[in-house]
Amino acid sequence: MLSVELHAHSSLSYDGRDPVSLILEQAEAIGLDAIAVTDHDEIDASLEAAERAPEYGLVGIPAIEISSKAGHILGLGVERAIPPGLSYETTLEAIHEQGGIAVIPHPFQESRHGVMGRISRTQLAKGDAIEVYNSRLLTGRANRQADRFAREHDLPRTAGSDAHISEMVGQAVTRVDADDRSADAILEAIREGKTSVEGKRTPWHISVRQFAGGVTRRVRNSVPGLWQ
Fold first, then answer.
1. Rounded to an integer, what distance in angstroms lies between the CA atom of residue 163 and that of residue 46?
2. Which of 53, 98, 128, 194 could form a disulfide with 78 if both were Cys (CB 3.0 to 4.6 A apart)?
3. CA angle in degrees (0–180, nearest 5) for 199-200-206
């Protein structure tokens, strides 16, 4: 079984803090086998992480978190950015056109761009996998809803730290029963549902710090010259 982080953000995300090197160092330090950097609507840092991952004894999975009209969707195994603002179904199709997997993260938490405020349960079931444990959910209720939905619809289950600072990488991991230690094998095992999840909640003060840092970076990026 491989320990895989499937949801982490670098400084290329508007709300991320750390460069790829720190993310990979953390993943190596805690003994992960593989990692996907999933920046918001950006893919360059993920491609860098996938290329550099072997230097840290890791398997790198290129990925992106796409802001569809319905909400956030993770595209695992894609190497070209998929534009934001597409419909839910069109975003899934764009991921599949690249041979990737569409994982629906925190679907029942609408306050964090979960998709369930804008799609039906039938549409949700069209995802390839459901993120059933997200470390940044404060109460756990939305995680339980996602887990129940995935089990009822026999969908693969994943976990993700949703880390926006490097220290939180590995808070939640997906255990993947892959045939070999490669990105292709990991993705195929996820498709087949050969996964289990484990994790712990991000401490509330860390969540607040990540949120505050994201707000500051959004303001800085939207008002050029403000901090110059």
1. 14
2. 98
3. 130
pLDDT tens, residue by residue, 100-158: 999 999 999 988 899 999 999 999 999 999 999 999 886 789 999 999 999 999 999 99
Length of the chain: 228
Distance CA 52, CA 83 (A): 25
CA distance 4 to 175: 6
Nearest CA to 112 out of 36, 210, 4, 197 is that of 210
Task: Measure the CA–CA gap between 36 and 162, rounded to whole angstroms.
Answer: 11
- DSSP H or E segment with residue 66: strand 63-67
Report pTM.
0.90
The answer to whether 68 and 92 are in contact (CB under 8 A) is no
* Two tokens, residue 19: 């460069």
Residues with pLDDT less than 70, the chain: 138, 204-205, 207-228
pLDDT score, position 227: 37
